[in-house]
Amino acid sequence: MRFASLICGLLFVLCASAQKAKDKPAIVKPTHILFVFDASKSMSSKIQNTSRMDGAKNLFYKFIDSLSKNPNIQFALRMYGATVKYPPGDCKDSKLVIPFGTNNLSLIKQKVSEAKPTGITPIEHSLTESANDFPDNKSNNIVIIITDGIEECGGDPCKARQKLIQKGIVFKPFIIGIGLTPQQIKTFECVGNFYDFENASTFSNISQIIQQQQLSKTTVQVNILNQQSAPLESNVNMSFYDVQSKAYKYNYIHTLNFQNNPDTLQIDDYPTYKVVAHTIPPVESKETKLNAGKHNIIPIDAPQGFLNINRNESAYNFNEKVKCVIRKGNDMNTINVQQLNTKEKYITGIYNIEVLTLPRTYFNDLLIEQSKTTDISIADAGVLQTRCLEAGDGNIMVDRGQGLEWVCNLSNQTLQTFYLQPGNYVATWRSKSLRGSIYTIERKFTIRSNNQITVEFFR
To answer: Exposed (0-12), middle (13-18) or buried (19+): which is 378, by Cβ within 10 Å?
Structure first.
């Protein structure tokens, strides 16, 4: 009875906790929106029967009135070209007019309403400075630029990108262009997403994206596909490259989660990515532009199998550290150097293996198949010791029945040790003190696995 009462009490507590968790509202990540407002001289020009400045102000008010209904959004205002008259203007004329804070909307509106077309357009400087305007990198940090011009101070707006990324800003600034030419619009491609002031859907498009970014993060999973196009390959390093800058942004070891699905990552959605999976040999994805605020999948075809290279570690060849050169098909480039008695994973296909024994051991047209292990075995070496009375010149050749094949040269040492594969050999040697070829000494010998012989070059 006591036990039953305890169980009933526990169930009551669990149910109450579950209901409390259910009733608890979802936590929405706060959003900081910085408006970068162009107050340069050119904003006095006309567009759609009004000045560009008045058109920009009206669009700005529309954004503020719409987005301010969301209590999780804070605003700030930066202006450039607002204080120093052009000409000549001032390329440092950019100022955080109203910092982020609560209850600052009326002051922000007032400052915008008071703005008059005055100076020059320092876009890179303004973007770089805006990196310091955000209080932290834990929020959704967004920049909205409203401008009618391009960089006029010799700067490069693209260079401001890295500083903003380091600050945790969604470096996909919304650039709202007023009266820009197609060539001028092209200069903003590296900066962010461009929207035309004259396009009726500009306001709704930006507002919708901002709302999405509040509710969801941009996520991505990389599906490393096997031969059946199933995303079951894993445990390989993958590098995310920014296609435009050609620099890598992220390195991750690919993982399958407890449900055997590729792991989900949260990454910056601004760049166009190319993902390189560092398989052997490496493979890469197609160029991919992520959809902001959504879950994205990047597939990479990378079916893999195993190559296992074996040889006994006997006392005779224990000290011989042999490596194996791996090449793909008829390509002479080395894609890997694998140690003996190791197992390595490779992309499926045809391989040629060169084992750096003396003499070389070759395995050509070797097939690596999906999820299968291809085994190759190397014969155990034998040990050759050479002895001579003084320094000399010589070499070792293998006799395969169709002529002699050079294996290696002898050094000037009087006692040398070689690990040789089983077979029939010929060694020649001549003392350096004897100048005639007639003084060459030839020795024939046979090497057997795990056996040692000594060859002496004495008359």
So the answer is: buried
Residue 170 resides in a domain? yes
pTM value > 0.90: no
Cβ atoms within 10 A of the Cβ of 437, count? 7
Domain that holds residue 141: 31-215
Residue 356's CATH number: 2.60.40
Q: How far apart are CA 191 and CA 181, in angstroms?
A: 17
**CA–CA separation, 425 vs 318, rounded Å?**
22
Residue 181 and residue 131 share a domain: yes
Please give the single-letter amino acid code of residue 4.
A
List, in sequence order, every residue forming a beta bridge with 456; answer none if it has no partner. Answer: 387
Give per-residue pLDDT as tens, 217-259.
788 999 999 999 999 999 999 999 998 888 888 999 999 988 8
> Are 358 and 293 in contact, with CB atoms under 8 Å apart?
no
Q: Does residue 146 share a domain with residue 44? A: yes
DSSP strand pairing (31-38 vs 140-147): parallel
The sign of the dihedral angle between the CA atoms of 129, 106, 89, 33 is positive
CA angle 198, 200, 201 (to 5 degrees): 120
> Is-cis flag, bond preceding 122, omega within 30?
no
CA angle 267–274–284, rounded 5-degree value: 125
